[in-house]
Amino acid sequence: MRKRSKRYKAILKSTIRDKKMDIKEILEQIKKNSTTKFDESIDVSLRINLKQSKGGDLSLRTVVNLPNGSGKKSKVAVLCEPDKIEEAKKAGADIAGSEDLIEKIAAGKFDFTKLICTPSMMSKIGKHGKVLGPKGLMPNPKLGTVTSDISKAVKDIKTGLIEIRNDKDGNLSSTIGRKSFSTEKLLQNYNHLIESVKKEKPDTIKGEFIKKSFITSTMGISFKLGAR
Asked: Do 221 and 11 form a contact (C-beta atoms < 8 A)?
């Protein structure tokens, strides 16, 4: 049996689990429960319906620009032509390079959490897809990380653009901010995330797209949310 900490047990005692609360009340309770010294992440987990009526699986992978940002700091690398390196640095990229950056990637040096690539450089990075892909670092046009507009791509990632994708069981998890965020900002981010996921519902799916939803903090307990 999993052993619970004294802190976790104290949170359980102080929380009325059976009380019906709306999302705003739940967020306030989660913030109250977040007594750790670090700025805990507030996370949402969804179970989405990805089964087609005639069989087969669908997948959801897209980006969501949270109105109040995610509170998560991303280290952004830009792979571009030599004459665009300075532009990338001015836009706020932590790392910017051309052939030299490809060499670092080939050597397994991934000192970044997001990789942006200009279209003309994609042919050079393609052969490293087997290494970058599993780490979630392979640039993708659909996710806005293959683009000629370097400044916009860097700014979007730095100010709250997050990637969401489901696993094979239809589970999808995403942060909506930090405990230091106001309840109002967390609520705005939550509503925006939910509406963004709903917009991705395929036409072949019947009924509710979001089957279950839960919300918690990094070190807190999970709350089940009502149907949306």
From this structure: yes
CATH number of 76-158: 3.40.50.790
pLDDT tens digit sequence for 133-169: 888 899 999 899 999 999 999 999 998 899 998 888 8
Provide the residue ranges of all domains of the chain, joining segments of one domain with +: 20-70+161-224, 76-158
Residue-wise pLDDT for 55-104, tens only, equals 455 688 899 999 999 998 899 999 999 999 999 999 999 999 999 999 99
Give the number of other Cβ atoms within 10 Å of residue 103's Cβ. Answer: 11
Average pLDDT over residues 108-114: 89
* Residues 31, 33, 39: CA angle, nearest 5 degrees: 55
Identify whether the C-beta of residue 51 lies closer than 8 Å to the C-beta of residue 67: no
Domain 20-70+161-224 annotated CATH 1.10.443.10:
no
Return the HEC string of the chain. Answer: CCCCCHHHHHHHHHCCCCCCCCHHHHHHHHHHHCCCCCCCEEEEEEEECCECCCCCECCCEEEEECCCCCCCCCCEEEECCHHHHHHHHHCCCCEEECHHHHHHHHCCCCCCCEEEECHHHHHHHHHHHHHHHHHCCCCCHHHCCECCCHHHHHHHHHCCEEEEEECCCCEEEEEEEECCCCHHHHHHHHHHHHHHHHHCCCCCCCCCCEEEEEEEECCCCCEECCCC
Residue from 72, 43, 79 nearest 186 by CA: 43
- Any idea which residue has 């397994």 for tokens? 108
